Amino acid sequence: MSDLYEYSTPEIVRLLGRRFKEYRMRCNFTQKDVAERSGIGMTTIHKFENGTAGNISLSTFILLLKVVGQINALDYVMPELPESPYLIRKDDKKAQRIRHPKQDKI
Asked: Can you tell me the distance from the alpha carbon of 4 to that of 40, in angstroms, rounded to the nearest whole number?
């Protein structure tokens, strides 16, 4: 995968499905093995791997990552960030949400 910004969401799902198939095969698992280990239907797995699933849920994707031993790869997708000085309020507490100041109505 080069610059993923060039791809639409369904195209990225198709790319991930093809990549998942490679991981599954390297684990020497059939689609049936993955279905039994994850609780996900074989039709869903088949459609994901073959690029005919327009989308899959995040929960489904996480289950599939667990089956092929790649759940820790999520740390590369969204690594934990260091504390940001911009999120510390004046009372030294961490901001829980971002609020923009109200603008005067004209």
From this structure: 27
Are 46 and 4 a contacting pair, CB within 8 Å? no
Tell me phi and psi for residue 71, to 5 degrees.
Answer: -60, -30
Query: Which residue in 42, 39, 40 sits closest to 31, CA to CA?
Result: 42
Judged against a pLDDT cut of 70, whether residue 105 lies above it is answered with no
Phi, psi (degrees; rounded to nearest 5) at 16: -65, -40
Alpha-carbon radius of gyration of the chain: 20
Residue 93, Cβ density class (10 Å: 0-12 exposed, 13-18 middle, ≥19 buried): exposed
39: pLDDT confidence band, cut at 50, 70 and 90? Answer: very high
Hey, what are 12's tokens? Answer: 């990225």
- β-strand partners of 88: 94
Q: Each residue of 69-84: pLDDT tens digit?
A: 999 999 998 998 888 7
Is this model's pTM higher than 0.70 or not?
yes
Cβ neighbours for 14, distance < 8 A, ≥ 6 positions apart:
51
